[in-house]
């Protein structure tokens, strides 16, 4: 099959619907819009400017910004100018930023919408060429000033499908980020087949998860380009709910923490007992569901996804009662976010769906999930050793453990590398246990540990709801959870006690990745000295 590239999709919509809005972004509460034609013009002018800098062919150009219209325009301009984009997380610390800029050998850095660039700036080499975006300008040459008198590229530049398009640095749950290399063909193959499989056409997307992450980049950026859709952005955390409601997307992707926040917000206004009563009355039930869906901004959503980390079954079932049917998906940077998805008409709760077309999947002798298709990464940039460990005989070794049922539904059962051994010599997979424990709505974050302990213990951070509980009620609730969950676990997996810590795990304190996954290594390092003392404590230890 002949797959069109992202640039070819831009040219298609420039011709077919030049005056339709493609990008819509709130700035100081006012929505700014760019049509396909206007996006094309901006991209063509910036591409011409970059080309005029006479960088060596296939130079790396870095992109540091939160999601905004100019992020997407920049990525396309880098493609059109003949170079390779290196998107960066907008919340990196200066040290990691400096490492990536040096490792990628970036010739140019775009600096856009950021919350704390002053803290990050020390990581930018003093001789680095930088360009800043409109609306969010730093003390660098500005986009509009640079492109004012530039003649735009008028030809429809076509990049070879085997040329390197981007280097995506992973968020690094263990160790330093690795640069995943993807050629243009990978985007073309993965997006075309995903869009066709999900029947996406003229969709409205809501962009708030980092665009430098493969899930947002493939679903929102590429998905919008290949479906001829529209992208609406969130302005800030404070305006997130209002922006989502105004955008009313037809496709929405939420990581587990977002779904937990949504749930907590609903329960704050409508306690569970009252909600249960209202949902049991047929006519009222329908009205309540519609009101909640509209309030969240999901009344028009036809595909509602969750991914990036495990989502508790109890949470998915809770939303299903509200008519919000969450589709789990599973993929990773190394396979261009093309692996498994739950279709909206065939959801098997607890599984991450079935393999997408032209994607082969099998389990190793250790039940590790292996993936093979035509859009696997070209390798890790400047790291042949890690590449050779990850892709073996054409199969991507995901590091995830799973089971596949007779209908091809895949269930993730843990991480191969996350296994720990108790003092009894038994191996424990923490992820499935954490999923069961997190059904308790007083728990915001949980990490099951237990190296060299007789039984695992669970370190938790309380949700807002949990923080409001009296000590007596909280201990009672958590004790009940242990009594409910432990009988469902194998003897060596049973959780000995809960440890409630005060410090939240955030990206800023380096206990979460930018995609909100817990960094087990960092959490272990922080707390391990306390394990034995905690183990000898009460059923619920309040630190």
Summarize the structure.
This protein is an alpha/beta fold and 543 residues long. The protein is 35% helix and 22% strand. The chain folds into three domains: 6-227, 3-Layer(aba) Sandwich (Rossmann fold); 251-299 and 302-416, 3-Layer(aba) Sandwich (Rossmann fold); 419-542, ANL, C-terminal domain (GMP Synthetase, Chain A, domain 3, 2-Layer Sandwich).
Explain what you see.
The chain is α/β, with parallel strands linked by helices and 543 residues long. The chain has 3 domains: 6-227, Rossmann fold; 251-299 and 302-416, 3-Layer(aba) Sandwich (Rossmann fold), CATH 3.40.50.12780; 419-542, 2-Layer Sandwich (GMP Synthetase, Chain A, domain 3), CATH 3.30.300. Helix content is 35%, strand content 22%. The protein is built from 19 helices and 27 strands. Strands 11-12-13-14-15 form a 5-stranded mixed sheet. Strands 16, 17, 19, 20 and 21 form a 5-stranded antiparallel sheet that branches.
């Amino acid at each position: 099959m002949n797959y069109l590239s992202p640039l070819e999709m831009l040219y298609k919509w420039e011709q077919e619907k030049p005056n339709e809005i493609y990008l819509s972004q709130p700035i100081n509460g006012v929505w700014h819009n760019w049509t396909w034609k206007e996006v094309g013009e901006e991209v063509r002018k910036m591409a011409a400017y970059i080309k005029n800098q006479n960088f060596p062919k296939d130079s790396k150009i870095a992109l540091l910004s939160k999601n905004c219209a100019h992020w997407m325009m920049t990525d396309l301009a880098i493609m059109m100018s003949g170079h390779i984009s290196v998107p960066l997380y907008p919340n990196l610390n200066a040290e990691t930023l400096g490492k990536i800029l040096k490792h990628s050998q970036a010739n140019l850095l775009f600096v856009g919408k950021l919350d704390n660039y002053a803290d990050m700036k020390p990581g930018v080499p003093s001789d680095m060429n930088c360009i800043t975006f409109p609306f969010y300008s730093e003390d660098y040459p500005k986009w509009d000033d640079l492109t004012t008198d530039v003649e735009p590229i008028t030809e429809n530049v076509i990049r070879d499908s085997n040329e390197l398009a981007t280097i995506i640095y992973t968020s690094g749950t263990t160790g330093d980020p690795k640069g995943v290399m993807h050629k243009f063909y990978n985007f073309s193959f993965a997006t075309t087949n995903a869009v066709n499989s999900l029947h996406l056409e003229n969709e409205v997307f809501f962009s708030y998860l980092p665009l430098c992450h493969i899930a947002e980049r493939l679903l929102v950026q590429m998905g919008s380009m290949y479906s001829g859709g529209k992208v609406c952005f969130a302005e800030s955390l404070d305006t997130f709910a209002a922006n989502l409601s105004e955008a009313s997307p037809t496709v929405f992707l939420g990581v587990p923490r977002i779904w937990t926040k949504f749930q907590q917000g609903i329960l704050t206004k409508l306690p569970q007992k009252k909600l249960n009563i209202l949902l049991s009355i047929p006519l009222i039930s329908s009205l309540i569901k519609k009101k909640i869906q509209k309030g969240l901004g999901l009344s028009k959503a036809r595909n509602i996804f969750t991914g990036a980390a495990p989502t508790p079954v109890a949470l998915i079932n809770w939303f299903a009662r509200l008519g919000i049917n969450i589709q789990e998906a599973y993929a990773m940077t190394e396979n261009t976010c093309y692996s498994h998805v739950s279709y909206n008409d065939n959801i098997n709760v607890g599984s991450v769906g079935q393999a997408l077309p032209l994607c082969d999947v099998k389990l190793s002798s250790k039940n590790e999930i292996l993936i093979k298709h035509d859009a696997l990464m070209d390798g890790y940039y400047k790291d042949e050793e890690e590449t050779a460990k990850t892709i073996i005989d054409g199969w991507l070794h995901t590091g995830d453990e799973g089971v596949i049922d007779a209908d091809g539904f895949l269930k993730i059962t843990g991480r191969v590398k996350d296994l720990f051994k108790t003092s009894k010599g038994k191996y424990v997979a923490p992820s499935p246990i954490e999923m069961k424990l997190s059904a308790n709505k007083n728990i915001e974050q949980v990490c099951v540990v237990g190296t060299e302990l007789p039984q695992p213990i669970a370190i938790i951070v309380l949700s807002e709801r949990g923080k409001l509980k009296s000590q007596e009620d909280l201990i009672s609730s958590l004790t009940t959870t242990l009594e409910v969950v432990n009988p469902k676990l194998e003897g060596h997996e049973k959780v000995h006690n809960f440890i409630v810590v005060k410090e939240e795990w955030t990206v800023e304190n380096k206990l979460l990745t930018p995609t909100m996954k817990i960094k087990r290594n960092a959490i272990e390092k922080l707390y391990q000295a306390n394990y034995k003392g905690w183990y000898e404590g009460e059923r619920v230890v309040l630190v």
